[in-house]
Amino acid sequence: MGYPRKLTRRFRAFDNFAISFTIINIISGIFSSFGFGLNAGGPRILIFGWIGVSLMVLSVGAAMGEIASAYPTSGALYFSAGKLAKRHQGAWSWYTGWLNFVGQVGGTAATNFAAATFIQAFIAMQWPSYQPTAPQTVGITAAILLVQALANTYTVRLVAVLNRISVWWLLIGMVVIVAALALIPTHHQEPSFATHFANNTGFTNAIYGGMLGLLVTSWTFTGFDGSFHMSEETVKATVNAPRGIMRAITCSALTGLVLMLALVYAIRDYGRAAADDAPPVRILIDALGVHSAKFLLLIVIGAMLFCGLANMTSNTRQIFAFSRDGAMPGSRWWHSVSDRTRTPVKAVWLAAVCSLLLVLPGWWSHTAFTAVVSVNVVGLFLSYGVPIFLRLRLDDFQAGPWNLGRYGKPVAAIAVIWIALSNILFMLPQQYPVTPESFNYAPIALAVVLVIATAWWFATARRRFQGPVSYGSPDEVAAMDLI
User: What is the pTM of this model?
Assistant: First the structure.
């Protein structure tokens, strides 16, 4: 790919799969957004929407996997965008990289903020006199980011081990939660409950309300580009990186459907659960009692913490690669690698600090925090869509060992259409009446990012950034190899 090797290849095929599976994190994603789905479509959209959106996301993963096989670098999406563009390679690469960077930082911030929220919910269940506050949530989030940064600082091998543990935590945790919800309650909903439809969004159009419910699944299926970003640390990356993407999406789709069914059929009082501040916690308490709910809540919190760790690892590799090509302020700092651990330590702490900056508005306004991190999903999926769209336009795409053959273009076309549709949904109003508290700030957050990136591009970047840097021929790069 034209780079001297700085990072050690210690990720096996399972490790590569583990990071994307952990970032997708069905427990974290479903528990964080389940309440929104109860009010935007109900069980019908939660269950059948999960199946439909999973298939669409699988097409995105397959199209990304083809590109990962052809360009297995830490730069991943922005690198491949620069290589696939027919013209203006620097601009395509620039916008893709910044969308991916902001999306990943937002993902780390949002996941850890959710973990802090659930930690406080657990504390309040354990000690009823405890009153959660916004400053306490921000403080807990900051502590989580500190621990995750320390974990990412000390050797990629430790992160790989933690990601392996996280896979089993997720799978065993999912089995425990599902088994508890299936076996302990004396009452479950009737089979026909799967078709129950509810629209509590305030919009009178039921189709619109149901389509908003699809965002539950879309929110969950983010971050599978983590396997792509870890390519330079994965053995046989041209095959194992795309396989990691596909396996992570497939396993998450199947296990997530089981978890979704378990939660839906364990609902006792639909109205009470839908109106609760934390609907999944309310479902656990109603179905299992407080003590069992607290135990299961620990599983959920653990899953969220693992998710945040994997998010930061992926974010760090994107920062490392983007800086290596001179696209970030202080690039020479952020792409340096520790001689002892062979990890981009400075990039780790930049990722942690940027995530903390996004969390800080939550100190005084949850609405402000939502506005900042809402660009997470939009930014990520747009960064997924750009290289796939460019690959679709390219007639002479040089596929890697893992490819879709003649199905490559049709699958890429489906992926681009779905990304466009889902991003429109993410930017539409999600609750009526529209007030400062209920307003969807995703378009504004995205516009701010694009305006800054555009101003920066025309001011200085277009003269110094021409896309991914080539350090020389394969022989020349091998002579520079640091390991």
Answer: 0.89
d(CA 381, CA 378) in angstroms, rounded, equals: 5
The answer to whether 313 and 104 have CB atoms below 8 angstroms apart is no
pLDDT of 455-473, one tens digit each?
A: 989 988 888 887 776 544 4
Which of these ranges, 257-271, 397-411, 460-474, has the smallest mean pLDDT?
460-474
Higher pLDDT, residue 275 or 163: 275
Which of 247, 242, 220, 218 has the alpha carbon at shortest distance from 230? 242
Rounded CA-CA distance 35/48 in Å is 16
What is the distance of C-alpha 147 from the center of its chain? 20
Q: Which of 248, 319, 239 is nearest to 60 (CA)?
A: 248
Burial of residue 405, with CB atoms counted within 10 A of its CB: 0-12 exposed, 13-18 middle, 19 or more buried: exposed
Is pLDDT at 137 greater than 60 in this prediction?
yes
- Joined together, the tokens standing for residue 204 give 């009178």
Q: What is the DSSP string of 335-370?
A: T---TTT-S-HHHHHHHHHHHHHHHGGGGT-HHHHH
State the helix-helix crossing angle for 408-427 and 442-456, rounded to 10 degrees: 110
- With tokens 């999960």, the residue in question is 50
| Residue 474 in this model has a pLDDT that exceeds 60 | no
CA nearest neighbour of 260 among 33, 418, 425, 17: 33
Q: What's the CA gap between 74 and 118, in Å, rounded?
A: 32
Which domains, from first to last, does the chain contain? 13-480 (1.20.1740.10)
3-state secondary structure of 85: coil
